[in-house]
Amino acid sequence: MSERSASGTNISTERSASGTNIGTDPTPLPTPTFDPAARHLTTRSGIDTEELTGRTFPYQFDRSLVDDVDLLAATPGEDLNWLEDVYLMTEDGMPAVFDRYTNAFLKIYFDIPEGRGDEYARKVLIKHLQEGNSYGIWLKHTHAKFAQPELGPWLAGSATVGENWRPPTLTGWEPRAH
């Protein structure tokens, strides 16, 4: 099954054991290449989180930084269903994993061993969440309306945010006193 990403790129939601798209696109994922010095804004109609923030993370480029991620230990509770729904996809022709807390793709630039695409997508996502690098996590400090673990339940001992939420106010737009 194939869908379109926010940027209009075809993404595969089903993968074979060899990491190739199932269905209409039988080609393997491209070999990742990336030159951070060549970063520039594009004119496409979709939103690229890396482009907008100007940020990438070391574990997107170095597989050895996620090799030791224990998916079972990092997954909260007995129910692994949410992690089973995380697959290796593509965004802008690159292998990527979808970070639903940010509603954006996290591109993966290292070589992925054949048949282990979903595993590495999950490891990259867990590492991203555990290190607090998800843009959705960054927004919790200001916008969380109820007490919750800052880094989610996948990291024991995470700080709590959202305990003292107050609605935002704009200077000059405060409610009138009656």
Descriptive notes:
- Helices cover 20% and strands 13% of the residues.
- It has five helices and seven strands; from the N terminus they run E-E-H-H-H-E-E-E-H-H-E-E.
- It has a three-stranded antiparallel sheet, with helices on one face. It has a two-stranded antiparallel sheet with strand order 1-2.
Q: What's the topology here?
A:
Blueprint lengths: L1 E3 L5 E3 L36 H5 L17 H4 L6 H4 L4 E3 L2 E6 L4 E4 L9 H14 L4 H9 L4 E2 L10 E2 L17
What characteristics describe this protein?
globular, alpha+beta, disordered N terminus, 178 residues
In whole angstroms, the N-to-C terminal distance is 58 Å
List SSEs in N-to-C order: EEHHHEEEHHEE
Radius of gyration from the alpha-carbon trace, in angstroms: 19 Å
Strand order of the largest sheet: 3-4-5
Please count the beta strands (DSSP E, at least 2 residues each): 7
The average pLDDT is 76
Helix content: 10-25%
Number of helices: 5
Query: How would a textbook summarize the main sheet?
Result: 3 strands, antiparallel
Unreliable residue stretches = 1-32
What structural class is derived from the secondary structure elements?
Answer: alpha+beta
Please tell me what the overall shape is. Answer: globular
Beta-strand proportion: 5-15%
Summarize the structure.
The strands form three sheets. The protein has a three-stranded antiparallel β-sheet, covered by helices on one side. The chain has a two-stranded antiparallel ribbon with strand order 1-2. It has five helices and seven strands. It is α+β, with helices and mostly antiparallel strands.
